[in-house]
């Protein structure tokens, strides 16, 4: 099917003015690299497994990019918007980036031309979207619509919990051990405390021991000890009742 000269001219004018749709014209190409880390990733992206991939999340369906042989993630024809970049790896944890693809007008060529301005910042999950971290990349004037940024590794994923060895500090932090050490120190140090007391304080302490429910017949008192009555300040009235009953019996006998 042949087009007429007028139809071809109209289509050429529409294409030159960018009226074929903003999605076909305004689209950015994004490239992300993983730099090597001396401790976590010494071999760089080449040592990552083949299942490693990156995703760009927005309101619509996410964009996905696999790990290429050169160790990069390439997203093609990304429409303007604000995206969250996440790198999913089997063995490592990577930082998240906020990627903004915005429409811009380029006046350097003499004619106003719509281009894409792309910027990337470090971001953090759980924080506000406006909370931006360190800038990771930005498009230059010569390469409008194309950006290359770095995605840094943060740590390794641990799937197994290592068995902790013996630690004297953790042994001493045990509550039962602390109670035993305190009781032993109290038993050993009490005689020295009593020897260093003055006579008046020592007499008061002995008087308190005599008035204590455990001071008289400790074996039976310990079995029948009432903690609530002791804390309330109540005294045992059984001895008085026994003396009264004994006295009344003697009178009857007489």
From TrEMBL:
Residues 225-254 are annotated as: Disordered. Residues 1-27 form the signal peptide. Keywords: Membrane, Signal, Transmembrane, Transmembrane helix. Residues 49-179 form the ER membrane protein complex subunit 7 beta-sandwich domain. It comes from Diplodia seriata. This is ER membrane protein complex subunit 7 beta-sandwich domain-containing protein. Its main location: membrane. It is found in: Membrane. The chain crosses the membrane at residues 176-194. One of its GO terms (cellular component) is EMC complex. InterPro entries: Beta_sandwich_EMC7, EMC7.
């Amino acid at each position: 099917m042949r087009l007429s000269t007028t139809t071809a001219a109209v289509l050429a004018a529409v294409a030159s003015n960018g009226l074929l749709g903003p999605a076909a014209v305004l689209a950015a190409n994004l490239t992300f690299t993983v730099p090597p880390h001396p401790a976590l990733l010494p071999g760089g992206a080449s040592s990552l497994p083949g299942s490693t991939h990156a995703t760009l999340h927005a309101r619509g369906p996410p964009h996905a990019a696999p790990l290429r042989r050169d160790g990069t993630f390439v997203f093609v024809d990304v429409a303007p918007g604000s995206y969250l970049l996440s790198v999913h790896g089997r063995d490592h944890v990577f930082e998240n980036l906020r990627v903004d693809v915005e429409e811009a007008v380029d006046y350097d060529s003499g004619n106003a031309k719509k281009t894409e301005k792309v910027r990337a910042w470090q971001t953090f999950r759980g924080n506000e979207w406006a909370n931006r971290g360190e800038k990771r990349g930005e498009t230059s004037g010569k390469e409008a619509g194309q950006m290359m940024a770095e995605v840094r590794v943060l740590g390794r994923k641990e799937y197994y919990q290592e068995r902790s060895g013996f630690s004297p500090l953790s042994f001493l932090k045990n509550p039962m051990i602390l109670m035993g050490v305190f009781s032993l120190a109290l038993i050993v140090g009490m005689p020295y405390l009593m020897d260093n007391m003055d006579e008046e304080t020592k007499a008061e302490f002995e008087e308190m021991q005599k008035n204590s429910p455990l001071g008289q017949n400790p074996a039976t008192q310990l079995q029948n000890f009432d903690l609530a009555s002791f804390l309330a300040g109540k005294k045992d009235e059984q001895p008085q009742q026994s003396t009264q009953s004994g006295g009344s019996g003697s009178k009857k006998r007489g």
